[in-house]
Write a structure and sequence with these properties.
The protein is mainly alpha-helical. It has a domain at 4-160. The protein is built from 12 helices and no strands. Helix 1 (4-34) packs parallel to helix 8 (126-154). The protein is globular, with a radius of gyration of 19 Å. Its main location: membrane.
Length: 227
């Protein structure tokens, strides 16, 4: 195989993602079928959406029969962080040619973490190494989601509390972000905005309102946050 070295390297460093995506994807598949959705929606969503947090959120949107505008706005806010990931990798992806669209599409939190924490091997074809890393990570997610959906279609599970897996994912990401930033203000703003929206705003609008409030407060306290 022409790019065997790049594939082996990508697989070796993606093993932690493999362990996480299989488990979390399995949970998503079980949750999806527990709401009586067809199992094949899991691989379809994993191929064309490929956004763990958004896929979990999408289930709640479907059940609440949310409007397209609400779904679009919430989806944009949930995944807006990916835009900043992409900006920081413009130089790396500069010479990727035809592979660039997929590299952008496959830039998840975990893939970004690997790309920014593990030093590149100069002996590798970087664009193909990045390609294999993105493909493998998405493959792990597809396998996890599809497996969970298939099992959930034939075996009854008590999925009570399973939706908390998404909350757990965000808690872990939040902790990692705090370790990196060492700045408590953004997290206090997020918490206070969420509590306010939870108490005073209807549940179907709570997410959007809390994000808007948090953004306004972030701009208002911008100088203090930057310090």
């Amino acid at each position: 195989m022409k790019y065997e070295k790049e594939l082996k390297k990508a697989f070796s460093i993606s093993i932690p993602v493999l362990m996480g995506y299989i488990v979390l994807g399995f949970a998503f598949g079980l949750l999806l079928t527990s709401f009586n959705y067809a199992w094949y929606l899991a691989p379809i969503m994993s191929i064309f959406i490929y956004a763990g947090a958004l896929q979990f959120v999408a289930i709640n949107f479907f059940n609440a029969k949310a409007g397209l505008v609400d779904i679009a706005i919430a989806s944009w806010f949930v995944n807006i962080r990916q835009s900043f990931y992409g900006l920081s990798l413009l130089k790396r992806f500069k010479n990727s040619g035809k592979l660039k669209p997929f590299l952008i599409f496959g830039l998840t939190d975990e893939t970004y973490a690997l790309l920014t924490t593990i030093k590149d091997d100069e002996s590798l074809s970087k664009k193909h190494y990045y390609l294999f890393l993105g493909l493998l990570n998405q493959l792990y997610w597809i396998i996890g989601c599809t497996s969970g959906a298939l099992v959930g279609s034939y075996v009854e599970f008590d999925t009570a509390g399973l939706e908390f897996s998404l909350t757990a994912l965000f808690v872990v990401l939040c902790i990692e972000q705090y370790k990196s930033l060492k700045n408590i203000y953004p997290f206090l703003i997020g918490a206070l905005s969420s509590i306010f929206a939870l108490i005073f705003i209807p549940s179907d609008k709570m997410l959007i309102v809390s994000i808007i409030i948090a953004l306004i407060m972030m701009f208002f306290f911008r100088k203090r946050i930057e310090k």
